[in-house]
Amino acid sequence: MFKFRKALTLPAVLSLTFAVAVAGCSSSTATSGGGAASTPSPKSAEPAKSADSAPKKTKLIFWDKSEYVKEYNEAQKERVAQFSKEFNVDVEYVAIPPADLKTKLLAAVEAGNPPDLLLADDFVAKQFVANNQLVEISDILKKYDFREDSKKYAYALEGLYEIPVYHTPNVMYVRKDKLEEKKLDPPKTWDDVKKVAQAINDPKNNFYGLGFQLGGGGDSSGRIENLIRTYGTDLVDKNGKVTVNTPEALEAIKMDASFFTEKLTPPGAVTGDDSWNNTAYLNGQVGIVFNSSSIYAAMRSEKPDLLAKTLILPWPAGPKRQFGSGGGTVFVMFNKGKNIENAKKYIDYFYNKDFYGKLIEKLNGLAAPVLNGYENSEFWQKPENKGWFGASKNIVPLGDPGPPDARASQVVGEYILSKAVTSIVVNNVDPKKALEEIEKNYKRVYEKK
Q1: What pLDDT shows up at residue 17?
Q2: Which of 127, 291, 328, 419 lies at 20 to 30 Å from 110 by C-alpha?
Q3: Is the pTM of the predicted complex or chain greater than 0.70?
Q4: Which domain of life is it from (predicted)?
């Protein structure tokens, strides 16, 4: 699945508040309210205890998204409890389903009561960069050895406000058994993808080479945009000027349309939504799909036999370039938070090398580390995990290389790319006219024309 991955939600908000009692440290010279030091009674072996002798407990409100893999939030909960005890901080840790997080955040920010620390998807966090709502974090970026591709999440036109936490890659799922039957190598390019699909396509037995769709959602838009870009064309430039109408882009949308006109996809693919391809692959009906970790998680728990027949590979290269697909999660701090210093302390506590590495591993390869130094570990060298790490490389931000702002979300939300390809497939529209329609709609959004 493309960046707009399906919400992997838990049934309810997990709200975990830690108030770890820490015994007050007595001292023979404990002060009270900043006054003179008190003197212990000569009749007592123990020093007198002042009500103010124990350090005052501070607070931290930390909102996290609940992950599909429950071990992640359990590990985070345990880490928060350790932090609470070690630093004498009362931490309110709340894990919220991704589908609910944006609404709750908007309400909290509107009320002037945001969390001190937020861990969320990059595209959710980025909307709070404007209007001076977040804490600038360039100093924190310098403290850790972030992968260069991870640093892209931090960038916004206004400055650096997001601290990378982990990559959430999308991958290419391929039926390994079908390749073996036809003695085919795993596909590495878009041309390979089509050739493999043609070779394994078997409509008479209700099996199709490709599980691609054109209905509303991020999956279709992500696939078509990736094709156009790997053919050598950026849809917009770094300033937001629309640059999509090129001969290379024309060839790319012709290629995407051919997947459907040549009947390499099942009936219903033209109207299929973002869950359609999951179902098609899990039902054993298609040979290749692009998706996020949701298919992998479903196979692990429900269809291990299908998982054994599946290869997990990076997205294919085009004639000119190759791009990964997916997104990332980030930390942000709200400047109206009341406990920013504690938020920074927890970030330091979080990036402990052993804890961080083990936390990412608990996500079972469904997320990849944003820090250098993990790729060659035993966990990431396992065949079932190596593909996920590879898929995390070259992930580009939403709307790249254009400005990281709301316009990129708008063009996806309007399904501009998938509607254009649908017009070729269903209405036999000339591909050149379909490309001109893409250009016109992108200019309407990006250039207000």
Answers
A1: 44
A2: 328
A3: no
A4: Bacteria
